Amino acid sequence: MATGLIGDNRATLLHAFVPVGKGKLFIGGADQDSIDSYVANERDDVMRELAAFLAASADRLDGRWSVRVEEGGPMEVISRVISEIRPDLLVMGTNARSGLLKVLIGSVTEEALRSLDVDILAMSPAKR
Fold it and tell me: Cα separation of 43 and 71, whole Å?
């Protein structure tokens, strides 16, 4: 984006998603085709939202970006993809959580900083 870090290199925009109803469908005895269909619909919803984000950011992105949408929790997906593609740098956004809320729900960025073996640039949201 505006970091100037990418240059002529490629970048991957990764989005992890958790299909929250998958477990309920499984416990309720749904067949595998129904569960797979539900997950595919959830993935499609995520892709539509991501496409809208990318369209709104088109002036800052170019053809060197690829997009991946992976099922799983954020750290599970990030760890798996880091192991797979071995990037030089992981750029992560931070949320503006603080205090008790941060303690209760944790921080993916903080966990990544503690546990991943890759250089990480953590960026806070732009102030408005």
Answer: 8
The average confidence (pLDDT) of the chain is 82
Which pair of tokens denotes residue 32?
């595998």
> What 3-state class would DSSP assign to 90?
strand
Predicted TM-score (pTM) of this structure: 0.73
Classify 107 as helix, strand or coil: coil
Q: Give pLDDT tens digits for 50-108.
A: 888 877 876 666 666 788 999 999 999 999 999 999 999 998 887 766 666 555 556 88
- Residues 6 or more apart whose CB falls under 8 angstroms from that of 71 comprise 16, 17, 18, 19, 39, 43, 77
Across 3-23, b (16+ Cβ under 10 Å) vs e yields eeeeeeeebeebbbbebeebe
The separation between CA 115 and the C-alpha centre of its own chain, rounded to angstroms, equals 17
As a three-state string, the secondary structure of 4-34 is CCCCCCCEEEEEEECCCCHHHHHHCCCCHHH
